[in-house]
Design brief:
Blueprint: E1 4-5, H1 11-17, E2 20-26, H2 31-46, E3 51-56, H3 61-66, E4 74-79, E5 82-88, H4 93-105, H5 108-121
Parallel strand pairs: 1-3, 2-3
Antiparallel strand pairs: 2-4, 4-5
């Protein structure tokens, strides 16, 4: 599957219409981002059931700011419209595969219950 380029116009629709979305926040001038790009692209072809997308932080500063992206590359995973993972820095292919496998195995009913409990406490 091809890697999608997200912006403020297609971001919400992509998150809403896909069960699992992994985001790569990057910039064209970022050396580690350029080094990680082939790994990310290869994983998009290898892993089924996950939508791979990139957000250029130079072009989409408002979107990057809304997620408080301070370091690039930063990877973020949404599952059923809930952010379940965020980590700055590039990942090795095996580590990325492990994180995505865990994201698929996560019991979202438990996650929603934990969120509700935290919100009730605040």
């Amino acid at each position: 599957m091809a890697v999608l380029e997200l912006n403020k116009d297609n971001f919400d629709e992509t998150i809403k219409n896909n069960d699992i979305v992994i985001l790569d926040f990057w910039a064209p001038w970022c050396g580690p981002c350029k080094s990680f790009a082939p790994t990310y692209e290869a994983m998009s072809e290898k892993i089924d059931g996950v939508t791979f997308a990139k957000i250029n932080t130079e072009d989409e500063q408002e979107l990057a700011g809304s997620f408080q992206i301070r370091s690039i590359p930063t990877l973020m995973i949404f599952r059923e419209q809930i952010a379940i993972f965020q980590q700055p820095g590039a990942m090795a292919e095996a580590d990325l595969e492990t994180v995505l496998t865990k994201a698929k195995e996560l019991d979202m009913a438990v996650v929603r219950k934990e969120i509700e409990e935290q919100q009730a406490k605040s």
